[in-house]
Amino acid sequence: MDNYYPRLKDLREDRDLSQQYIAEFLDMKQPQYSRYERGIRDIPTDILIKLAKFYNTSTDYILGLTTETTPYKK
How far is residue 42's CA from residue 16's CA, in Å, rounded to a whole number? Predict the structure, then answer.
């Protein structure tokens, strides 16, 4: 699988958000979130889902399984 961690950073930076802002949204400390962006820690499923909803994209996009940023229809 491709390295998907840079997508998290790209999504955040495209919206001019800080790691601290996202960490607070996820109810965690900034260093913990930073480890996800740097690929030091794998992203738990519940966090991945929250991020996909927050960025209005699919988990597949974040994971690098598609280049389509539009979320799937329910």
Answer: 24
Rounded-to-integer distance, Cα 27 and Cα 25, Å = 5
What one-character DSSP code corresponds to residue 43? P
Q: Tens digits of per-residue pLDDT, 17-29? A: 999 999 999 999 9
Residues 24-46 pLDDT 10s: 999 999 999 999 999 899 999 99
Helix (H), strand (E) at residue 37: helix 30-37
| 10 C-beta neighbours (distance < 10 Å), count | 11
The residue type found at 37 is E
Contact in structure between 57 and 71 (CB atoms under 8 Å): yes
